[in-house]
Automatic annotation (TrEMBL):
Its EC number is 1.2.1.3. The keyword Oxidoreductase applies. Pfam families: Aldedh. Homotetramer. This is aldehyde dehydrogenase (NAD(+)). It comes from Actinomadura rudentiformis. Keywords: NAD, Oxidoreductase. The lineage of its organism: Bacteria, Bacillati, Actinomycetota, Actinomycetes, Streptosporangiales. The active site is at residue 250.
C-alpha cells in the first residue's frame, strides 16, 4: 500500500521522499510505503482547510454532531480491523489496541451530544431595555500534529471536538503510523466529513515545522494541537507565541507513583506493572519512578520483580501479552540511551534475566515472538536517587525506577522534582494521605489506588510544567481549546446608554446601626 497526503479529498501527487513503515514485531513486514510531503504541501493543506471553513462553520452544530455520531458508529463496526492495523504497525498488544479504538468511539459518543450543547449565556444588564449574550465560535483552522504511540485515540481527542465545534483540520500524523492514520481518515470521510474539512499530511518533523511556520505567517492557522516530546513542544510553543497564539501542548512525562506504608501492596504491584510496562513503557503517562515507603520497600520490590518476570512479552497478536516491541528503531535508539544511565555500582536491576534487547544471546523466559523484532527486556532499577538521569528524564521504554522515602512531604517533593507534571498516583488506605498528596503534587492528573495510565474519554487530560502548557483535552474542558467566546450587547432602549455611567443608583443609609 502506497500512501500520500490528502488535501481537499484528493491525493497529492508522487513525491521524491519516501518512508517505509514496517512492523516493529517483524521488520520484514512492510505495512505501507508513504510519499512524504514537504513544507509546501502542509501550507497547501492549510489553504484548503481555510477555503472549506466557512461552509463547515455554517453547518448547524447538531448536524455536525450527527457526522461525529456516524464516525463513532463506523469505528465500532470496524473495531477489530482497525485494532489489527494498530497492532501490526506500532506493535501494540491487540487487547490494548482494541481499547484504543474503543476510546475513539467513546470520544465520538461524548461529543455528538455537545453539538446540541454548545451553549452561550444570556447575561443580565445593569441597564434597562438592554440584553447581553455570549456565544461559542469555532477558532477556524486547526493544525494537529500527533505521535504514533496512540496513533488513533490521541488524534481523536483533537479532531473530534475540533470538527464538532465547526473548525477545519490539517492533521500531520506520525509517518511511522501512516497506515493507522489512513484508516482513521477513511472512517471519518465515510461518516460524511466534507472534502477539505479534514486534511492529512504525511511529512517528517522538519518539513512539518517549516510548513507550520509558513502557514502561521500567512494567517492560515488559528490553533495548533501537538502531542509529542517536550523538546519539540517548546519549539512549537515559541513559534505560536510569535503569532500571539496559545497552542494545545500535550508533552512528555516522568510520572511518579507513591506507595505508602499502609498501601495494599498486591494492588500497588499490579498498578506498577501495567503503568510501567504496558505499551512497552511508551505512553506519556507511563510510570517513571515508584517512590516507596522505606518500611515496605523490600517487600514491594520482591513482588514487582516476581510479577515482571512472570509477565508475557512478545508478539502483540498473542494472547495475554503485557507488552510487545518498541515502535521503531528511533525509539529503540532512545531507549538504549536510557539503559546507559544504569550504574551497576549503585543500582540494583530486577525484572528479567538480562538488560537490553531480547536475543539469542540475551533470552527471556517465556518470550513469544520474532527475535528480529524490537523487543526489549523489562527493567526495574532499584536505588535511583533524585540526582540520577534515570530519575529526572523521560525514558519512553520498559524501564521503571524505584526509590524510597520516610515522610509523605519527602515523597511529594521527590514526585515533583523532575519538573514534569502530567500524571501521578498514590497507593494508600488513608484518605488524609490521598488528599495531602493531591494538594501537593503538581501533576494535572492524580490517581488513588490506580495506575498512572488510563484516562477516561470524558475527563480532562493534560499536564503542567515540562508536560504541557496547562491546556486540557477530553470532556467539556477541551471545548475551550477549539472555540472562542464572543460577547454581544443589544440595546433596544432607543437611546445611548453608557456603561458604568448611566446606571441607576440606589442610596443606602450606611450609617445605620441597630
Amino acid at each position: 500500500m502506497t500512501l500520500s497526503s490528502i488535501i481537499a479529498g484528493s491525493r497529492v501527487g508522487p513525491t521524491a521522499d519516501r518512508y517505509v513503515s514496517t512492523s516493529p514485531a517483524r521488520p520484514d513486514d512492510v505495512v505501507a510505503e508513504v510519499g512524504l510531503g514537504d513544507a509546501g504541501v502542509f501550507a497547501d493543506a492549510c489553504r484548503a482547510a481555510r477555503r472549506a471553513h466557512d461552509a463547515w462553520r455554517d453547518v448547524p452544530p447538531p448536524v455536525r454532531g450527527q457526522v461525529i455520531a456516524g464516525a463513532g458508529r463506523l469505528v465500532e463496526a470496524n473495531k477489530e480491523r482497525l485494532a489489527k492495523i494498530v497492532s501490526r504497525e506500532v506493535g501494540k498488544p491487540y487487547g490494548e489496541a482494541l481499547g484504543e479504538v474503543q476510546e475513539i468511539a467513546d470520544t465520538c459518543a461524548f461529543f455528538l451530544g455537545e453539538g446540541r450543547r454548545l451553549y452561550g449565556q444570556t447575561v443580565p444588564s445593569e441597564m434597562p431595555d438592554k440584553q447581553l449574550f455570549t456565544f461559542r465560535d469555532p477558532v477556524g483552522v486547526v493544525a494537529v500534529i500527533t505521535a504514533g504511540n496512540f496513533p488513533v485515540a490521541v488524534p481523536s481527542w483533537y479532531i473530534v471536538p475540533a470538527l464538532l465545534c465547526g473548525n477545519t483540520v490539517v492533521w500531520k500524523p506520525a509517518e511511522y503510523a501512516a497506515a493507522c492514520a489512513e484508516a482513521f481518515y477513511e472512517l471519518f470521510a465515510h461518516a460524511g466529513v466534507p472534502e477539505g474539512v479534514l486534511n492529512v499530511v504525511y511529512a517528517d518533523g522538519a518539513e512539518t515545522f517549516r510548513g507550520l511556520e509558513t502557514a502561521l505567517g500567512e494567517g492560515l492557522v488559528d490553533k495548533v494541537g501537538f502531542t509529542g516530546s517536550t523538546e519539540v513542544g517548546v519549539r512549537i510553543g515559541e513559534l505560536c507565541g510569535r503569532h500571539l497564539q496559545t497552542p494545545c501542548l500535550e508533552l512528555g512525562g516522568k510520572n511518579p507513583m507513591v506507595v505508602t506504608e499502609d498501601a495494599e501492596l498486591e494492588l500497588a504491584v499490579e498498578g506498577a506493572l501495567f503503568a510501567g510496562f504496558g505499551t512497552a513503557g511508551q505512553r506519556c503517562t507511563s510510570l517513571g519512578t515508584v517512590i516507596v515507603h522505606e518500611s515496605v520497600h523490600e517487600e514491594f520490590v520482591r513482588a514487582l520483580d516476581a510479577a515482571t518476570r512472570a509477565a508475557k512479552v512478545g508478539d502483540p497478536m498473542e494472547e495475554g501479552i503485557l507488552f510487545g516491541p518498541l515502535i521503531n528503531e528511533r525509539f529503540a535508539d532512545g531507549f538504549e540511551k536510557s539503559l546507559g544511565w544504569i550504574d551497576p555500582a549503585r543500582h540494583r536491576v530486577h525484572g528479567s534475566g538480562a538488560v537490553g534487547r531480547i536475543s539469542e544471546s540475551q533470552p527471556r523466559e517465556g518470550f513469544v515472538g520474532d527475535l528480529g523484532g524490537l523487543y526489549y527486556h523489562p527493567v526495574i532499577v532499584d536505588g535511583v536517587t533524585a540526582e540520577d538521569e534515570l530519575f529526572l528524564n523521560e525514558t519512553f521504554g520498559p524501564i521503571v525506577g524505584v526509590t524510597t522515602y520516610r515522610t509523605l512531604d519527602e515523597a511529594i517533593a521527590l514526585a515533583n522534582a523532575p519538573g514534569y507534571g502530567l500524571s501521578s498516583a498514590i497507593y494508600t488506605t488513608d484518605p488524609k494521605k490521598a488528599f495531602t498528596f493531591r494538594r501537593g503534587i503538581r501533576a494535572g492528573m492524580v490517581s488513588v489506588n490506580n495506575s498512572t495510565s488510563g484516562a477516561e474519554a470524558h475527563l480532562p487530560f493534560g499536564g503542567n510544567g515540562r508536560s504541557g502548557n496547562g491546556s486540557r483535552q477530553s470532556g467539556i474542558w477541551v471545548l475551550d481549546q477549539f472555540t472562542r467566546w464572543q460577547s454581544m450587547n443589544w440595546d433596544y432602549s432607543g437611546r445611548l446608554q453608557k456603561a458604568q455611567m448611566d446606571v441607576l443608583e440606589i442610596d443606602a443609609d450606611l450609617g445605620f446601626r441597630l
